[in-house]
Automatic annotation (TrEMBL):
Domain B12-binding, residue spans: 147-277
SUPFAM superfamilies for this protein: Cobalamin (vitamin B12)-binding domain (SSF52242)
One matching Pfam family: B12-binding
Name this polypeptide is given: B12 binding domain protein
GO molecular function: cobalamin binding; metal ion binding
Entries under PROSITE patterns matching the protein: B12_BINDING
Lineage top rank: taxon: Bacteria
Gene3D superfamilies: Cobalamin-binding domain
InterPro entries the record matches: Cobalamin-bd, Cobalamin-bd_sf
Length: 277
């Protein structure tokens, strides 16, 4: 995890508020089992982060206080807690690997032991996710390869892959280096993206049936690769436009013309940020 990116305010509260509102609205449009899968995804991804021993290791009481703040009636209590510890000198790594990772573990334990309700854990995980989105600017900008490149993938479980295959071929004709991944499971695709140097990731989905897998993938990628540009293409952009608009994506495209425009803009954004980092 590299966090030598742009300095500035520890947590962008505007991004935090917007991300939480979007995720809350998205969850309100999803079935309960899909909402539960998103909560588990946040807990699993955060709790699996390597927790390194450090002189800055917070006490169990400190982690419990953070959890209570995340579950409180005050929407910004958890964010304020994180802002305070960063002001006191906690690095991004300490926030992620010590505070948020351990808080995710504790929330998971409380949920399994029925100490908190389903509604509470979804609230807490939504706020943790929004905190991470609010800290995105603190991470190092991905180093853009000299040649324009991107990773294209079909959403896990998708069987309609002709469109993304054609898009990959067309972008290659345009001079892009496209790494195409089809038929991978959720875990396989995440592992591949984490291990790659992809600065742009495009996920293709054919329709509303893909929303559960797509939303779960977006949440996981935002945690594992916080500064990778992420866009979605395919018929899902039209068929599930309301849900797609709430995923906090860097771009969407329902046709090849729009996809070319989105890719060009995102590549320029990455290149410009890298040159000024």
């Amino acid at each position: 995890m590299r966090s030598d990116g742009p300095s500035g305010k520890p947590l962008d509260i505007d991004v935090y508020v917007r991300s939480q509102a979007e995720l809350r609205s998205l969850k309100s449009q999803l079935p309960e089992d899909t909402v539960a899968s998103l909560a588990r995804e946040v807990i699993r991804r955060l709790a699996s982060r390597e927790i390194q021993s450090s002189v800055n290791t917070p006490s169990e009481d400190a982690i419990a206080q953070l959890c209570h703040a995340l579950l409180s009636d005050d929407d910004t209590a958890g964010a304020q807690y994180i802002q305070e510890i960063e002001t006191d000198g906690a690095t991004v790594e300490v926030v992620y690997l010590q505070y948020l990772a351990r808080a995710a573990q504790l929330l998971g334990v409380w949920w399994e032991e029925d100490k908190i309700s389903f509604m509470s854990v979804t609230l807490g995980t939504s706020r943790m996710y929004a905190i991470m989105r609010g800290m995105q600017h603190r991470f190092a900008v991905p180093r853009a390869p000299l040649k324009r490149s991107a990773l294209f993938a079909s959403v896990p479980g998708e069987t309609h892959t002709l469109g993304v295959r054609m898009a990959a071929d067309l972008f290659r004709q345009d001079g892009w280096d496209i790494n195409l991944k089809l038929g991978l499971t959720h875990e396989e695709l995440l592992k591949h993206v984490e291990g790659s140097d992809a600065v742009l990731v495009g996920v293709s989905a054919a329709g509303e049936h893909s929303i559960r897998a797509l939303s779960q993938l977006v949440v996981a990628l935002r945690i594992s690769n916080p500064n990778t540009k992420l866009f979605v293409s395919g018929n899902v952009v039209v068929k599930a436009s309301e849900q797609i608009a709430l995923m906090g994506l860097d771009g969407t495209a329902a046709d090849i013309k729009t996809a070319r425009e989105v890719m060009a803009k995102l590549w320029t954004d990455v290149s410009d940020k890298r040159s000024t980092a």
